[in-house]
Amino acid sequence: MSSTTVPKAVLYHSPESVWSSAVLLALEEKGYAEDEVDLKLVDLAKGENFSVSFLRLNLKGTVPTLVVPFKDSLSDDVESRYKAVTDPKAIVNLLDQSRSPLSRTRTTSTAPAPSLAPATVAFSAASNALLEILHAEEVSPDALILVNARDGASLKTLASKILPQVVGRQKALKECISEAEAGKVQASEKVKKFWRDKEADTAVLLAVLSAAEKEESALDSTEKVKRAEFFTKATGAWAAVKEALVKVNKELIGPYALGDQLSLVDISLAAWLRSVVLLAGAGPGDDGSTAVGKLEGFLGIGLPKDFQVVDVRRQETAAVSKLAGFWDAMSERASWKKTFV
């Protein structure tokens, strides 16, 4: 086996996945070369993450998914063996560990590989606590995208944005179920149940989105119940985000989560915060005070302005929230600009 055929990691990702963007940020921050990790796009709108071939890698059908060769199979003369890493936190942590002065991973990049791991036990505990908040299921940004509506008008807007994706998802799931029942594809009972459960959940969402153009008075009794349940779910999701936002802002040191040095938790926070800020109506080019301010207005809260930043144009300092300072610090980084701009 030649050196050009040494196995590489493969990252399955999607631009529709918030946590995929976190992994892309990590790749940039760690200085991986473009030829060190194969990037494979997964079309969520077509339900490619529900295919049998993808579920063999990740039975949850989620992205990002990183498939990596075992370290004892990296040699040219050893048959490659792989494992799939499906937890976004674990993927970022693995990328951090796999490219460092101490790692034995082959690398073609000459870029610096700064460690993202917290430097002390105390910082590690603080980082883990923040990561637990950000990755909690109830504040999942990918789930929030699907229920980001509070009233009839915003529901119409949401439907115009995501209805085609939801229709495509349901179509893919129905095809998977149909082909399995006809014996055209081999699937375990566990996989079949996964498809049926996902299709049932998708059907509920699709029913609400399909009736989005109807005024409340035009809905039948079933549609009214489903819309009310949808709004209740959306309200609960944003309430959870509000609680998480207050906790995170309180725990930040600034400008990054643990102070002056970028760390693992900042990768997740950057992706999460950008997603919820945009869902609240801010623009991707807004500065920190404007972006986080719009999020505060959307949630009906006011974060303490207890972090000092320097206004270069006015040659003076200004007090902003820690999250606003974090937004400004991250948005200036090359990784942010490459991943999001």
TrEMBL record:
CDD domains: GST_C_family, GST_N_family. Residues 7-103 form the GST N-terminal domain. Transmembrane segments: none annotated. This is GST N-terminal domain-containing protein. It comes from Mycena alexandri. The lineage of its organism: Eukaryota, Fungi, Dikarya, Basidiomycota, Agaricomycotina.
